[in-house]
Design goal:
By secondary structure, the protein is mainly α. Helix content is 59%, strand content 6%.
């Protein structure tokens, strides 16, 4: 967590080292200009206010909150969701933290902005974040078949999901993935080629449904 408090400074270092002076890379020039202009504006305001003897307000209401918020976002949305940062397989390089319970599940989902289902973001980047939970239930048989890192937080235990439970999808795309209540078990027993085709169909449906 303490290393995350330095993320703002690392972002600046990365920008000047890998983006600012790479005009030959397509898209880098407008991106660099946009970032430099933004930096000049808000750092100029911060310096100006500090010179006018408002440096305490700048530190306490701007700089420190900026560093703390960036650290929290990096820790919860980037570090925890990809821990332990060693797997490179498509279905195992990101975690799912599934909190089950009538109260705890919606509460945690919204507090976490549904990033506890971060694997869904990697697999289906066009699906809006508030549908990650529905998408997860729809493709859960596929994820289990691929040994995805799914952690279930129940009322009295914390377990890693291994077996398939009843699937109750609310996404229309889930039906294309064979993850409906009626054919979830059949989907698990289908051949790898059938699974691949079903996942491809779901990807297309998810993409078109969010355009």
């Amino acid at each position: 967590m303490w290393r995350c408090l330095t993320i703002v400074f690392w972002y600046h270092a990365y920008f000047w080292r890998n983006i600012a002076f790479k005009p030959h890379i397509p898209g880098m020039r407008p991106l660099a200009i946009h970032i430099i202009v933004a930096h000049l504006i808000y750092y100029g305001i911060a310096i100006g206010l500090s010179v006018m003897d408002y440096w305490r307000e700048v530190l306490m209401l701007w700089i420190f909150p900026h560093i703390l918020a960036s650290a929290l976002i990096n820790y919860f949305f980037a570090y925890l969701t990809h821990k332990p940062h060693v797997a490179k397989e498509r279905y195992r390089d990101t975690n799912v933290f599934w909190f089950r319970g009538r109260i705890s599940e919606p509460l945690v989902n919204w507090l976490y902005l549904f990033q506890n289902f971060h694997l869904i973001h990697h697999l289906f980047p066009r699906v809006p974040f508030y549908l990650y939970g529905d998408a997860f239930r729809s493709v859960k048989p596929v994820l289990e078949q691929e040994n995805a890192r799914i952690f279930e937080f129940g009322h009295t235990r914390i377990t890693t999901i291994i077996s398939t439970s009843t699937i109750r999808p609310r996404l229309d795309a889930g039906r294309d993935a064979g993850a409906s209540r009626n054919d979830g078990d059949q989907f698990r027993r289908s051949s790898p080629a059938t699974k691949l085709n079903s996942v491809g169909a779901m990807r297309r449906r998810c993409a078109t449904s969010t355009r």
